[in-house]
Every structure is written in structure tokens, then in C-alpha cells.
Amino acid sequence: MSCLLVVEDDPDLGIALRAVLGQAGYETVxxxxxxxxxxxxxxxxxxxxxxxxxxxxxDGWEVLDRTRDMTDLPVLILSGRTSPAxxxxxxxxxxxxxxxxxxxxxxxxxxxxxxxxxxxxxxxRGDYVESGLRMVPERRSAVWQGREIRLSDIxxxxxxxxxxxxxxxxTTEQLLDLxxxxxxxxxxxxxxxxxxxxxxxxxxxxxxxxxxxxxxxxGLGYRYRGPH
Length: 228
Prior knowledge:
alpha/beta, Rossmann fold, Arc Repressor Mutant, subunit A, 11 strands, WH-like_DNA-bd_sf
């Protein structure tokens, strides 16, 4: 049974979508905002995503962009935005199909079936072969400068989030939300000490400047910049 991720902030529509897809034999998980969508995407590894664009927090465009950093799974945008320009934007941004609300349930199922038929069996990107780093998701480890390093689940998710956002600052609050599932921002010290542990795993001196791939940005958060 294929697992589908439905990202929809309207609770009534979310329930209706789950019912329609469930009756067709699909297992569904439901996210009502962008941050929850990314957490479920990582945890559930769905076969397809049904994505609304108007979401609280991270909007659908940002969810789509981050999804494409992680996987090539089919994405069906389900939106009330009807202009051709919006549909073109969605397809160019990486969506595989675009269905306008209100929609016919049978058309929705037909599009889902078509996308699943065309999808490849192995879609998740586990390798980041840049700057001497490769992530190995099946072993929760990383190959760094030619040597494999075993990581805890937290360390793996932390490194993964930073690498996906290479060159961009990821705030402490964002890391707490994405790595620790703590959207209220509680426990900021956890991030600091986890980064210190990760630096030790990578054998990077804490006071290093040029050699440190994990950059601390004072008052904001952290950035992965790779080795120099």
C-alpha cells in the first residue's frame, strides 16, 4: 500500500482528502502546515505528496523547494489559485502536476495513479558528494573526507538540515523545529551542544576558523559552508 502525504491546512478538506484516498486503498498522513509537512516527509518517506500552496508558517512554495532538495517523489499541487501563470510557476518549481480547487474526486485519484505509475522505485537522495561529504541514510552515518562517521539520530538530522541549506544561516529556532520537533523554540542549549558534538565527530577544532565547515553565526544560528 502506497503512503501519501497530504499537506492541507483546511481541516475539513484534509479529512475529505484522507477519506477519498483511503477508500481508494492508499495510506495517508496529514500535515496542516509547512513545518509539519517537512517532518513527515523525512519520517514517513511517502510515495507521493499532495500539496496546498497557502499554508501557515512555510508556504507551499518553500515546502516544494525543500522537498526537491531531498527527493524526486511526485508532487501534486492542489490549489485554489487558478491563473495559468500560477500553474506554470508550480510546474517549473518542480511539481509534477497541478489540480485546481474545487476538484472532482475521480480526477484527483486518476492523477495520483498516473503519477505513481511514472515514479521511480528509488527516489530518495542519500548522497551529497560535495566538499568531501556524503550522507548515508541507511546507516545513519556520513562519509567525511574519506572516512565514515557513525552519527546519532539527532546528529544525522542536524547535519542533514545544515547541508541541505548550504551557505544559508539556519536559525536555532528552525533547527529546534526541524531536528528536535520543538516548534516553540524551547531548549536552545541543545542545539549548541549538539553542534559541538558534531564538530568533534568531524574532527574539527572548536576554535577553528578556516577549517570549520560548521560556522556559528552569532545571535542567529549555524551555517554549513563545507571545508575551505
